[in-house]
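Record format v2
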Amino acid sequence: MSDTPILKVSDLIVEFPVREGTLRPVDRVGFEVRAGEILGLVGESGAGKSMCGSAIIGLIERPGRISGGEIRLHGERIDNLPEDDMRRIRGKRIAMVFQDPLTSLNPLMTVGKQLTETIRAHLAVSSSEARSRAVALLEEVGIPAAASRIDAYPHQFSGGMRQRVVIALALAAEPELIIADEPTTALDVSVQAQIMALLKKLCRERGTAVILITHDMGVIAETTDRVAVLYAGRIAEIGPTRAVLSTPSHPYTIGLMASTPSTTGNLQQLSQIPGSMPNLRAIPKGCAFNPRCTKTISPCFKDIPILETVDGSEVACWLYDPAYKADTKEETGASQ
Amino acid sequence: MSTETQKGAEARPEFKEVVTTSTWQRWMHSDIWHSYKRSPVIIVSSLTFLVLVLGAVLSPLISPYTPFDPASLNLMNGFTKPMSANEFTGDYFLLGTDDQGRDVLSTILFGLRISLFVGVVAVLFAMTLGVVLGLVSGYVGGWVDGMIMRIADIQMTFPSIMVAMLLYGIGKGLIPPDLRDEMAIWVLIISIGLSEWVQFARTVRGATMVERQKEYVQAGNLIGLSRWSIMLRHILPNVTGPILVIATISLALAIIAEATLSFLGVGAPKTEPSLGTLINVGRQYILSGEWWILLFPSLTLLALALSVNLFGDWLRDILNPKLR
Amino acid sequence: MLAFIIRRLGQALLVLMAVGFVSFSMFKFMGDPLENMLGQEATVADRAELEERLGLNDPIIVQYFDFFERALRGDFGVSYRVGLPVGEVILDRLPATLELAFLSGVFAISLGFVLGVYTAIKRDGFLANFIMTTSLIGVSLPTFLIGVFLIWAFSVNLGWLPSFGRGETRSVFGVDLAIFTWDGLRSMILPAVTLGLYQMTLIMRLVRSEMLEVLRTDYIRFARARGLSQRTVNFGHAMKNTLVPVITVTGLQFGSIVAFAIITESVFQWPGVGLLFINAVSFVDIPVMSAYLLLVGVIFVTINLIVDLLYFTIDPRLSVSSN
């Protein structure tokens, strides 16, 4: 692993102007991804995970836009590139895998055509070379009889096979980074693990970095090296997966862990976090989590907390602020 | 990251929440009013429509001349240019006169009256018919529903203007020849009305079928309320929006259909000319240079059709974005 | 697929039966065929004899099938107005309408498609917005007004194109067509544009909205995320996927063209079946009206069938899943 990260996102803000004001689905999010590393972005739907992914690959739907922060690929800013330069990065250096393989593939075009057009968009190869590469890719992602199935249409594949095709498409031009947006959510439970294993294996072999967007803590635990927990557009907690999952610090992460069927093997009572994530139009003042939090203290209702290092990860919670830590130490049991 | 200097992150952008209290305020903050204020095109077209309606309604009062009273016509006034006085009689005509010396402005106002009358009554007729058939179809179901909907399907295969023409021909055939001119307007209204009912019926049928399943209809029946009155009271409010949209769009279609039929000589009679008839008359002077006889009625029709169409389009977008 | 075709054929036949019934009812219950054929001086015996000969005493259902049988042979009786067999009159006029409909259909589809795709891709562009606004005016414009305006502009003022009539025709396989002569083609331009303009704007708006819909789909997002060029995404992916829904409406529009030809033909005095029909309505010429209705019914049903079949060649999902 090299020292400079492949991708460095800092203070990223995504905004959507609407009639009543401006919505901010992503608010000052920052993280890094290194070569071969798998970073998880986890949170409830609407937490801003997918929007981060769209922002990185430069595909935010209008009228949304990146209104602050920067995104660097190998130290080079990519958040303000002209469309044509950004297009050359998409697929070639950063690829994306979407949630639903059924809707990700063009139904009226054979799988082979979609693969070869992607290969030829980025690499100077002849059409026959592109085709043999396509077959090789399909074999690599585990499609049986790839040479004969290459001319089939997407609807002739099963859901799991289709997602394999999508992964093959993402890998077609050997990208350095893959953003996988809920890659298994739309699949049968039985094939979810296979697809995750495949993605993990291929990326490890090639040294491809992955940003895995999911709401599933189990997947995070099994797959990722580092994890960022998002809540209402902000990072609540970020750090090495082991540290975050074994000693969660943010009350939201603690709640998430408690509501996930055991990932550590302990049989414990499942609980749920009361309430639901606020609508982007009605985020409470101060810490966005305050209405659902059981440990609120006075600053939680006034100001938005920023990230502090706690137990090997970074946490945005007033409980760990140096000024308040002393008072709350005994109650929460948190220490450095 | 550290917090030495700053307490907490910068706050999110302000988001103003609209608190509404009275009905009036709710209306002022509603999407409809907001969208109306924002679209100059819609403001202009609704005002245009208003002016045209007023002109039509008040035509007997505001027309400078009475164009269809033979006694007041002076052939000497024939072919007077717009915005000028006739060289023989000295009478002034804002939009000129036609071959008979009729004031074009007055004929337009009276023609507008006929066009709007036919359009509005035809749509009301289509709406009544459509709503009733839709209610019956959705409520009774079975073969009645099947038959009404099959007729609707078949009718929908043909463009409504052709259906209207055909119905006009049939209607004319059924009426004794000596009454044909007298009844022409009503035949026209019924033909156009019959060609536009399907959309209304389909919408109401859909809503009725949904509503029929609901408990209050069943319950109301138990306590002895007439099902029909329940249905009417509950279903009609639900379909007011869509019906309003369909009615507006149908009105534009009906106005165009009327103008077309009259233009083709199978609509309003020469004795009660509508805008379409006037355009047909004006067309004869297209080569000889009396352009105003053609131009002004055409512009009026255009303004009428366009303003209703734009308004309907906007209404549809506001009330049901899904319809597009 | 075969089952699908058979079902569609069945539906088509049902529509034709219904249209035929209306057509037959007009023929049967409106206007008195005997009076028209015998004249005022006929005796009661004459009437009875003719009634028997024409089968007017048979049960309605028998007469209905009789009507169909005669219609199949092209026998629709005699026009009240011109005194000639309706079948012959219509056959004589049909080529003029069909060639006009064909030309305006080509115009409407090609221009409508190009403009639709353009306005969808350049959604916020100035020209695209301008085209969209203009098209709304185009939809609101009555066809006859467009025709009158075009005559005023191109015939009266500029003197470039003829304002009425069909011009010179040339016989091709025994059918007189104007489209193959220079003079005829010149005469066709204004009517064809008039007739096609409304359909063109409809097709354009439909293509645009379908295209915008497709551009929002996941596979277009994915295609862009794969780094395909904007051109490939727009033309290689989005456009083809727009075709399926567009074909239905476009096909149906072609039927409307035939119907709207009534108006255009009347404006330009184009000697087709539309002009024949409108004259028939004015004169309450029932046999012509009834035959015209049946003719248009056949044309519409045929077009619907063709549209359904076209689906199979465009969407691989349909042909595969039913095999």
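Chain C has 13 helices and two strands.
The beta strands of chain C are 170-172, 175-177.
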